[in-house]
Write a structure and sequence with these properties.
1 helix; 75 residues; alpha+beta; two-stranded antiparallel sheet; 2 strands
């Protein structure tokens, strides 16, 4: 059986059928809404990643070593 551009999976019957012949049509409004939602989610992910990222801070230099302390009991 040759497949046409309208062949797809009919979830109601569980078979591969000619969707247009069976009356299953994807309205343009649904497709447009899906694309708008996908773009909105993608923009949210990109902006959230930017908000969460931390700016690296330079680490301070090591302090100089301290002198030796005195010994207790010495005069």
């Amino acid at each position: 059986e040759a497949e046409t551009g309208s062949t797809g999976f009919n979830a109601a019957t569980g078979e591969m059928t000619d969707l247009l012949k069976d009356g299953i049509v994807d309205p343009a409004k649904v497709t447009r809404a899906a694309l708008q939602n996908a773009a909105s989610i993608a923009a949210m992910v990109v902006s959230t990643e930017c908000l969460v990222a931390d700016k690296p801070e330079p680490e301070p230099a090591m302090p100089a070593g301290g002198g030796m302390g005195g010994m207790p009991g010495m005069m």
